[in-house]
Amino acid sequence: MSEPLVFSFIIGIAAGFSAGYLGSLMVLEKMALVGDALSHVALPGLALGILFNFNPFLGGFAFLFTSAVIIWHLGRVTRLSFETIVGAMFTLALAIGILIIPKPDLLEALFGDITNVTLLDATVAVIVSVIAVFLTKIIYDKIVLSMISEELATSKGINVARTNLLYLLLVALIVSVGIKITGTLLVGFLVVVPAATAKNISSNLFRYSTLSAIFGAISSSSGILLSSLLKQPPGPLVVLSGIVVFLAAVSVKWISKL
After folding, report:
1. Cα separation, 137 vs 17, whole angstroms
2. Confidence band, pLDDT 50/70/90 cuts, at residue 168
3. Each residue of 17-46: pLDDT tens digit?
4. SS3 per-residue string spanning 221-234
5. Among residues 26, 48, 49, which one has the least CA distance to residue 37?
6. Nearest by Cα to 156 from 171, 141, 166
7. What CA–CA distances, in Å, run from 132 to 11, 111, 135, 243, 252?
8. Which long-range contacts (CB under 8 A, 24 or more apart) does 72-77 make?
9. Higher per-residue confidence, 173 vs 131
10. pLDDT digits (tens, 9 = 90+) for 214-248
11. CB 179 within 8 A of CB 14
């Protein structure tokens, strides 16, 4: 097994696990489309990195980070839903990104690439994922409580707005890590489908969040293996692997009810 493939596996497991864990909250909040759409916002940042010869994934994260703050602020000021604001921003960002990114690099930006992954990429992905999961675990119950009742959460001393901002920034961080493997077009899958799979077969919150993370890691690592074997972009194969996991979970639940 080549070094880039080993490093890709490490990134895939880290990104898939953390994306699945963070995505469990997004699915609970019925904000699945937000997680998917937010990933597209990184494309102009990637394009600028390629055009001006700096790390494109730093550019992608900068755009994601800034967009998360703007979305949070507009949500508070306008009272529009996150889905509405993200929907407007992601289409604009996608259009700009496709226009300015060099055409030879477009496929990699949209669908990911595992051929040039380094030890530094893998190390950063693991560190970022561990931090994101740890911080999300701290605020997990606070976010769940605010979903039930913002008034109740506030009465418990929870700053709902600040907690939501932290969560959005953590999602942006994980999406920027996952882009390396699945690309901007499909990384939102890792935030949505593993959590949806776990939700279908979970009986409590702990089982749900844990299975979301595990299914994310399985989907990502399986897709990377298939990508290496078939010599195809990893993004679509990560999606196909995740759908197989989803269908398997649905089948198990269906059989258990017979």
Report:
1. 13
2. confident
3. 999 999 998 888 766 666 666 777 778 888
4. HHHHHHHHHHCCCH
5. 26
6. 141
7. 14, 23, 5, 25, 31
8. 72/161, 72/164, 72/165, 72/168, 76/161
9. 131
10. 999 999 999 999 988 988 888 889 999 999 999 99
11. no
pLDDT at 36: 65
Contact between residue 13 and residue 222 where contact means Cβ atoms under 8 Å apart: no
- Determine contact, residues 93/40, Cβ cutoff 8 Å: yes
Q: Which two tokens stand for residue 208?
A: 């749900």
Helix (H) or strand (E) holding 191: helix 188-201
Burial bucket for residue 152 (CB in 10 Å: 0-12, 13-18, 19+) = exposed
| pLDDT classification of 138: cutoffs 50, 70, 90 | very high
The amino acid occupying position 152 is: L
CA R_g for the chain: 18
Amino acid (one-letter) located at 13: I
- Domains of the chain and CATH, by start: 3-252 (1.10.3470.10)
Asked if 57 contacts 122 with a C-beta cutoff of 8 angstroms, the reply is no
- For residue 2, give Cα distances in angstroms to 12, 100, 117, 118, 179: 15, 33, 11, 11, 21
Estimate to the nearest angstrom the gap between the alpha carbon of 137 and the chain centroid: 16
Residue 173 clears pLDDT 90, i.e. is over it: no
Tell whether the torsion through CA atoms of 47, 171, 200 and 213 is positive or negative. positive
Residue 177 and residue 131: Cα distance in Å, rounded?
12
What does the chain come to in residues? 258
